[in-house]
Input
Amino acid sequence: MAPIDLPELQRLDAVHHLHPFNDNAALAKRGTRVLVRGEGCYVWDAEGNKLLDAFAGLWCVNIGYGRKELGQAAARQMEQLAYYNSFFQCTTEPTIRLAAELAGLAPGDLNHAFFVNSGSEANDTILRLVRHFWAVQDKPRKNIFIGRHNGYHGTTVAGASLGGMKGMHEQGGLPIPDIHHIDPPFWFADGGDLSEEEYGLVAARRLEQKILELGPDRVAAFIGEPVMGAIGVYIPPMSYWKEIERICRQYDVLLVADEVICGFGRTGQWFGSQHFGIQPDVMTIAKGITSGYIPLGAALFNDRVAGVLKDVGGELAHGATYSGHPVCAAVALENLRIMREERIVDTAREEVAPYLAQRWAELGEHRLVGQARIVGMMGALELVPDKGRREFFPERGKVGGLCRDTALRHGLILRATYDSMLLSPPLVLTREQVDELFEKAWKALGETAEAIG
Ligand code: PLP
Output
C-alpha cells in the first residue's frame, strides 16, 4: 500500500469535504484525523496511533473490525448479482432470506420488513406508512406522532422532526407539522426526590397527558429509543416502558421502538425492547444489522399493521432504488450468522457486561463523575462540577470535550455529548480490553480534573 500523504489529504478535505455534525471552519484549520485500518476493537489513524474504539464507530461495529467473512460475502454477491431491485414484482434471494431471518429474531409478530439504507430512512418510512395505515382505515386525522425532546431519530426531514434536537430543528425549518414532543426520562436531571422507579411512571404519564391534550383520535404513534443514545445514554427506569406500552394500548396509539442503536445486542439482549419487556408494533433498525460494514436499515411491522397495508390493495407508493440491495442483505446475513454462531450477544451479556459495569462503577467514584450509568454494552459518565449534587457545569460541553480529547491522546475513543462521556464498544470487547479502557479513562478523567482546577 502506498504511504499516505496526510498533509495533502487534510488539505483536500478542508477544501472539498463538508463533514456531518462538525464545525467545518474549525475543522479545516485543525485538520481532520484520517482513519486507515481496523482490527477487532482497535482502529489506526494515518499518524500511526492505535486507538481503542470504545464507541464502535458510531454505535455500530458490533462484531468488531476486520472480519474478512463480511467482505467475502459482499464480493460473492457482487460477482453473482451486484444489483437488482424489489420494484416491478421482483427481488433477490438474500433480500428474502434477510426478511425471514429478521422475522425470526425480532420479538413478537414483527414479521414484515421494509428495507432502506439507513436509520433515518427507516424513520421516514414509518412516518409515511403508519399515517397510511390509519388513513386507509378511514382515520386520516389520526396522523400525529409523539416523540421526545432530545430524542434522536436521524437526519432526514421526517427523522429530524421526530427527533427532539433543538439545534437540528433550527436548521431547515423543522419539525414538520403534526409532530409533538414530550420530556424525556432523565432522572439525574429531572427526578427530584423521587425514586427512579417512581419517576419512571411520572415520566411515562407525560405521554398520557399529551395524548389526552391532542385527542386519542389524532395520535397515530409514539416513537422512542429504548435507551436514548445520542443525547447521553439516558437509561430509563424499568417502570417507564411498561407504562408507555400500557398507555399506547389504552388509546390505540402504535408503539414504535427506534432500535437503530439498541438493536443487535447493544443492551445485552438482541433488542432493547426485550430488555424492557415490551412488544412494539413497529421497529426501526440499522447500524448493528451489518455491524456498520455496509449501509442498511429497515422498518419492521407487526402482523396487524402489515396486514392492513397489504389487504388495502393498490400500490404501496414508497421505496428506494436500494431498498433490499442484495449486497447489503448478503453482508447482513453473514453478520447475523457470525453473531448467532459465535454467541456474541450472549457472551457480551453474560461474560463481559458485568465486568464492564463493575469497572464503569469504579470510574463513577472519580471526583469529576456525578453518575456512572450503564446497561449491557452502552453507558455514560456524567461529568459534574460538584460530585454531591445532580447539577451540570454552567457552560455545558466544555469539560466533556476536554475529557474526550484527553482520552484520545491516551489512545481511547469515547464520545462526548455535552459533559456526558459515552460508551458503546464493539460487543466483542474482552475483559483485558475492559481493563485497558478503565485505565485510559481514569487517566483522562484525572488530567481533565487537573486542567479545570
Ligand atoms: N435512530 C437512532 C436512535 C440513531 O441513533 C440514529 C443514528 O445515530 C438514527 C436513527 C439515524 O440513523 P442513520 O444515521 O443511519 O440515518
